[in-house]
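Lecture notes, part 5. Sequence design as translation. It can be helpful to think of inverse folding as translation between two languages: the language of shapes and the language of residues. The source text, in structure tokens, appears below.
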């Protein structure tokens, strides 16, 4: 009995050491537009992009340039059934070090809810409509409309952080209540 216990203990210690060197995130690459799961180590022509929210496998992925958000979502095993497709653009061309949040359609904390989350369109709604979101006051709403007028439409919901007065804390508060279209 002591020998079995010692063998199990030694095996457990070895496994702990081995797992410390394994990256828990799956690194992926897109080859010729087709998604394949492979490790890209030391690749000089690759980009690293993170995805979170309503995807099956959130994480950081290593991809080839000229990859779209749709390719990234596919590599993350697809969007969940709760993903709000009006809050992201699958044709968005990825750039190195970007992160994407796929917002939910329904409130995750209310499993009985049949009503979708009421959202504002940061690319089209006026100041008054934008202010209906808690966290977007009159100055932030004016700044969003002004930014949109001078820089064009937002390509991803994270771009709202480029607006003066909207930082990470405000984005975390409003990210489930904004959409692109």
């Amino acid at each position: 009995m002591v020998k079995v216990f010692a063998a199990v203990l030694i095996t457990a210690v070895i496994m702990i050491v081995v797992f410390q060197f394994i990256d828990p995130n799956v690194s992926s690459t897109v080859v010729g537009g087709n998604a394949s799961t492979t490790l890209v180590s030391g690749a000089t022509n690759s980009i690293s992009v993170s995805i979170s929210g309503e995807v099956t496998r959130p994480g950081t992925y290593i991809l080839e340039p000229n990859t779209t958000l749709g390719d990234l979502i596919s590599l993350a095993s697809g969007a969940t059934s709760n993903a709000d497709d009006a809050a992201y653009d699958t044709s968005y061309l990825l750039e190195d070090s970007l992160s994407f949040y796929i917002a939910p359609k329904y409130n995750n904390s209310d499993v009985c809810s049949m009503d979708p989350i009421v959202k504002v369109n940061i690319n089209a709604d006026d100041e008054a409509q934008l202010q209906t979101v808690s966290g977007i006051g009159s100055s932030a709403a004016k700044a969003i409309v002004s930014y949109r007028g001078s820089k064009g439409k937002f390509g991803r919901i994270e771009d709202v952080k480029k607006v003066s007065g909207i930082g990470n804390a405000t984005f975390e508060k409003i990210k489930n209540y904004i959409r692109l279209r």
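The translated text above is only one of many valid answers, since several sequences can fold into similar shapes. DSSP finds five helices and seven strands in the chain.
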